[in-house]
Amino acid sequence: MSENINWQELSEVEKLKYDSNYLRGTLTESLADPITGAISDGDTQISKFHGIYQQWDRDIDKERKRQKLEPAFSFLIRLRMPGGRFTPGQWLAMDELSEKYANGTLKLTTRQTFQLHGVLKRNLKATIKEMNDHLMDTIAACGDVNRNVMSHANPAQSSFHAEVIETAKNISEHLLPKTGAYHEIWLDKKLVADSKEEVEPLYGNRYLPRKFKIGIVIPPHNDCDVFSQDLGFIAIVENDKIVGYNVAVGGGLGTTFGKPETYPRTGTVIGFCTPDQIIDVAEKVVLVQRDNGNRKDRKQARLKYTIDRMGVEEFVAELTKYLGYELEPEREYVLDRNGDDFGWIKGSDKKWHLTYFVEGGRVLDRGEYKLKTALREISKVIDGDIILTGNQNLIISGVSTKVKNKVDALLKTYGVSPEDISGLRKNSIACVALPTCPLAFAEAERYLPDLVSKIEAILNEHELGKEEIVIRMTGCPNGCGRPYLAEIGLIGKSPGYYNLYLGGSFNGSRLNTLYKQTINEEEILNELRPIIADFAANRKDGEHFGDFVIRNNYVEEIKEGKDFKH
Ligand code: SRM
Ligand code: SF4
C-alpha cells in the first residue's frame, strides 16, 4: 500500500500518520524538550490519537505577545469512557487530578466523558498514568479513529440500559487502535514486539480519513442525538427484549463558514441488525469509510460526504459486500426528545437515580455555589455510580433510599440543591469555546447562561417559563454543542455576533435553518421576542417551538443536509 502513495495529492495529515510509526511520532522527544511548553507541530496531530490537544490561554494572548513570550501553552486531556459510567472512585480520581495538574475544573462533554483543561506539558505523563491507575484511559478519545462510543444514559428509564452500555463498551474496545504506542509513551510499558512489524489490522497505517463517531439510543429517548453520529444504533425492543438495532449512517454536524460544500447532515436509517451483528456492522461501516473516504481534503472527509458522494444505495451495496449479508429492513420506532429528564426517579432496579443539571458541563466551585465539593463528598458516600449524559449533565445513579437522603443533604450543604430551572435552561448546551478552544470565534460556555436569562424574561412574559425548548450555542460552526439540531441554534461568527438558526425538532431528527446572520445580543432578543409572542398566542396544543416556526413559515424545513445554508 505504502510505496505507490502520491503524497502530493493527499492532505498533510495523511503523511504525518503514515510517518508516525503507528502513532509514536516524536512525542517522547517533544515531551522531554525543556525549552518550550509546546510539542512539535507534527506531534500536535499525533497526540490527538492519545486523547490530547495542545492549546493556549487565549485570554492572555495579547499580553504574552507584548512580553515577547511564547503563548501560554497547556493541554486538554479527554477520557475515553464508552457510555460515560464512572465509579465513585474514578470520580474522586478525576477530581484530584483536576486540582493537582489541571485548571481545577472538570468539564463534562457532549460525548459523555471528562476533559481536563490547562495541563502543562511536564504534567501530561503523570496525569495519564494516574488516570490509567484508576482504569481510565484516553486512547482514541480524539484523532482519525472511532471516538468515545455514546449510549443511552439513564438506567432509571430503561431496564435495557446495562445491556446497551455493555454493547457500547464492546464496540469501543473492538475499534480501538492496536498500536502499543500509548502504553510505551505514557505508561512506560516495554515494546512487546518490534514496532516495525506491528500492524493495525483494522485501520492500516494511515488510520481513517477523519474522526468517526458512534452512539446508541433506546427509544423514545434520543439522548445521544443518534442522527448526529457517523453511525447511530436505535435499539428495538420487542416482547421485553432488545431484538436488534436500526442502523443510521452519515450523521455529522461540522461546517465551515464560506465553504458551502460543507454542511451538517442527519444520519440515514439503512436497515436493521441483530445484537449478534452489531459489532460486525460497526466494523464494516468503518472499513467502507476507511477505503472510500476522501483523504485529499479533510473538509470533505467525514462519512457523511462519502455517503452523499457515493449515494445511499451504492453505499449500502458496498457495505453489504463487506458484510457478506444484507441488513434487514428497518423496524418501527418513535423518538420523542433529545434532552435529559431531571430529578430523582426510582428505577425498575428499585434504586434511585438523580439526573442533575450542570450548566455548560462545567463542574467547579464558585462562591457559595460549591458543585465540585458537593460531588466530591457525594462520591465518598454513594453506593452507586455517576453517569455522564450526552447533554453535559450527570446522573447520580443506583443509590439506596438512605443514601438518597444523604445526597440531598450534601447538595443542600454546598448550595447546589437542584433548582426549579426553566424549560429553556434545562435544554441548553454550550460548547467550551473561549478561552481554551483555538477555533472559537465567539464565546459560548461563558455567555449562554446570561443570554438564557434574558430569553427567559421574554418567555415569562408569556407564561412560557416551563416550556421545554432546545437551545444550543457554539463559538464556531464546528458544531461541538450540536447546535444544528436545536430548536434555537446560535453559532459564533465573531466576538459578540452569532448566526441564529431556528426550526430543529424537539427530538433531534431535523436540522434547523438559518434565520438571521451575524447579529448581536440585542438583535437576537429583538428577533426572538415577536416569534415567542406569536408562539404563545397561536401554537397548537402540545406543539413544540421548532415545529411552530416551520408551520408558520419563519423558516423553511431543511430536508437534506446539502440544502443547508450558512
Ligand atoms: Fe468538538 C474540534 C470540543 C463534541 C465537532 N472540539 C474540537 C476541539 C478539540 C478544537 C480543536 O480541534 O482544537 C474542541 C476543544 C475545545 C476545548 O477547549 O475543550 C472541541 N467537541 C468539543 C467538546 C468538549 C464540546 C463540549 O463542550 O462538550 C465535545 C467533546 C466530545 C467528546 O467527549 O469527545 C465535542 N465536536 C463535538 C461534537 C458533538 C458530538 O460529537 O456529539 C461535534 C459535532 C458532531 C460531528 O462530529 O460532526 C464536534 N469538534 C468538531 C469539529 C468539526 C468536525 C467536522 O466534521 O467538521 C471540530 C474541528 C475539526 O475536527 O476539525 C472539533
Ligand atoms: Fe471550539 Fe467551535 Fe467546538 Fe466550540 S464548536 S468547542 S468553538 S471547535
From TrEMBL:
Its EC number is 1.8.1.2. Binds 1 [4Fe-4S] cluster per subunit. Binds 1 siroheme per subunit. One of its GO terms (biological process) is hydrogen sulfide biosynthetic process. The keyword Metal-binding applies. Its cofactor is [4Fe-4S] cluster; siroheme. InterPro entries: CysI, NiRdtase/SiRdtase_haem-b_fer, Nit/Sulf_reduc_fer-like_dom_sf, NO2/SO3_Rdtase_4Fe4S_dom, NO2/SO3_Rdtase_4Fe4S_prot, NO2/SO3_Rdtase_4Fe4S_sf, NO2/SO3_Rdtase_FeS/sirohaem_BS. Residues 75-132, 348-412 form the Nitrite/Sulfite reductase ferredoxin-like domain. Pathway: Sulfur metabolism; hydrogen sulfide biosynthesis; hydrogen sulfide from sulfite (NADPH route): step 1/1. Component of the sulfite reductase complex that catalyzes the 6-electron reduction of sulfite to sulfide. This is one of several activities required for the biosynthesis of L-cysteine from sulfate. HAMAP family: CysI (MF_01540). This is Sulfite reductase [NADPH] hemoprotein beta-component. The gene is cysI.
